[in-house]
Amino acid sequence: MRNLLLTGAAFAALLPACAQAQSAPPPSPAPSSGGAAQTPAPTASGDTDIVVTARKLDQARDAILPALGASDYIFTRKALDNQPGGADRNLTQVLTQAPGVTLDSYGAIHVRNEHANVQYRLNGVIVPESISGFGQTFDPRIADSISLITGTLPAQYGYRTSGVVNLTTRSGAFDNGGDVGFYGGSRLTLQPSATLHGSTGRINYFVSGSYLQNDLGVENPTPALDAIHDRTRQYRLFGYVSDILSDTSRISVFGGTAIGKFQIPNNPGQDPQFVLNGRSTFDSAALDQNQIENTHYGVAAYQYAGGDLNFQIAPFVRYSETRYRPDPQGGDVIFTGFNDRSTLSSLVLGVQADGGYKLSDAHTIRFGLFFQNERTRSSVTSQFFPTTTDLNGNTVQATDQPSSLTDSSRKVGQLYGLYLQDEWLLTPTLTFNVGARFDAVRAYTNEQQISPRANLVWKPAPGTTFHLGYARNFTPPPQELVATASVVQFNGTTKESEIKFGDPVRAEREHYFDGGVQQTVLPGLTVGVDAYYKVKKNLLDEGQFGSSLVLSPFNYAKGYAWGVELRANYEHGPFDLYANVARGQEKGKNIVSAQYFFAQDELDYISNHYIFTDHSQFWTVSGGGSVTIPNSLGKLVPTVDFLYGDGLRADDPAGIVPNGGKLPSYLTANFGIAQNFDGLGFMKGLSIRFDVVNVGDKIYEIRDGSGVGVGAPQYGARRGFFAGIRKTF
Known about the structure:
The protein is mostly beta strands. The two termini are 32 Å apart. It has a single domain, classed as Maltoporin, Chain A. The strands form seven sheets. It has a 22-stranded antiparallel beta barrel. Strand 16 (290-306) and strand 17 form a beta hairpin. The chain contains six helices and 40 strands.
């Protein structure tokens, strides 16, 4: 009931307009080309006027937030459907097929070797991030297209700047219909879903819902085919409604909910280290740890597009909560000496406003503001043992009777942002986009920065685009993950920290340089190369330091990153093929916040040496494609994709350099085939598919449990077989 009330509040808290981030230079199409299904031709002139107005407003919305000078990689609806898993694939699996995206555990991705620092937008409006765990807030089935924007971002993009993921929602395009489907297979996977879209008068709507259940909710900590105690149940709902008020304005309201329940998988064969109430043995395969994640969000947007002036105003709300529950029998206390029963919550209210004014043929001025107020709460009840010193001077458990302590905190913080920029057409082929933004954070840290941005885009010939840019970025630490920690209260216990202090987590400040070229080589064949270099102060990173699978942030005093990305895309006739290669790395030096999470020898070495960040990966390669084959039933679509990872960081085999080791490389491939029916009656709109994940049954480690801020080992999913059926109406 509480979840339903929160979802209702998220939808009701809203008023006016929708924003959408798109690129100005020719984007690199993603795995496949094409677009949303074409709208049936209206029969009434009034309907025609409404559709024309809606499309004009869509174009005006796109023009407010162009990613001029940045790299924009787009997955169209056709590309999303023509991939292994089709519409039932999750967002992480989709994004790992973009250039420079590294796969990590718990559903995380790293864009250009940065930890997190990814911003998510719906129709261009920032949706504040959820408390990190392993649930996914957004379902790709709600998107008409998904774009990943990287590089030196224009001034309208702030806060999370390694990548901007923008989902353009499926609004129905004023055609009535929908679909219902079922997908399932290995590891007891069950995934029913449905969408509904249409219009009535000037009102347009889209609704989506899905349920997912399987026995691999979190990566397996062992190489076995099936995990132990790894059931997940996930629910996602999304709704969108828009009303065209006039030829120049409309109001849109959209929002959704994501609820995830996860068992924490067990690693059998672990040795108990402590005694609890006379019990010194426990089967680690029988632990019962669980985590529940809830996120509810809503946006209302008012858009005006009249002549030279175009703007949108979008208030938003998001509530997120994560609850971790340790083993009720105290099994985890027997293994580690403590456990944490935690509840973290975050309520965000804010507004985003963006606008543009065409000052002349050569100048388009863009401007905007952002404000959010966030209230976070944290309650952690820890169970542990008192300690004492034995005759040999060793610290040992003093009693088998556990003690407990509850540490609660709350914080109200704000983010402020303003920007102004000019898209200056120097010549018909040369554009200079220059501007700046001001950002401030008032939470666990009080900081601000003025950030200049500049991008030069040159199109000397059709099909050729050069870009060169600079961006100064300001990334505040995620308030929902930061809490005041009093580690001294655990002195003399099995939860005692080696380091007894921790400086506050600070905002990251960055100088970002980027340049590249994109060229159409042949009809349908586009290739591109992009290179970047970043210099960082207070480099933000995150790690898993407690029993709860929620990450905690910390800073390196200095850091740098560099990389090169190559991409190619071929779209011609029935073929849609793509390939991406990325080489890069990130390093940091001197941990200057939250030091109580680390060992003294780690801090001593890192204070004088640059080390690889734990998520840095030398090489990442992705690719795939699909072929559309007409047949007597309709269209047969075989599809394949692959992912190569050179391996994330691990402990130095010599035990000297933190993150000095590397996990083995891996290559996995997925295959799918779908038959889409074009017949009459019930067969029209029917699609059946079959997919194989990890065709070669490659056993590979994403994490081995070692490295700075790494909590536990995780293996990639073993081979799985899946099938689905979907009916579009």
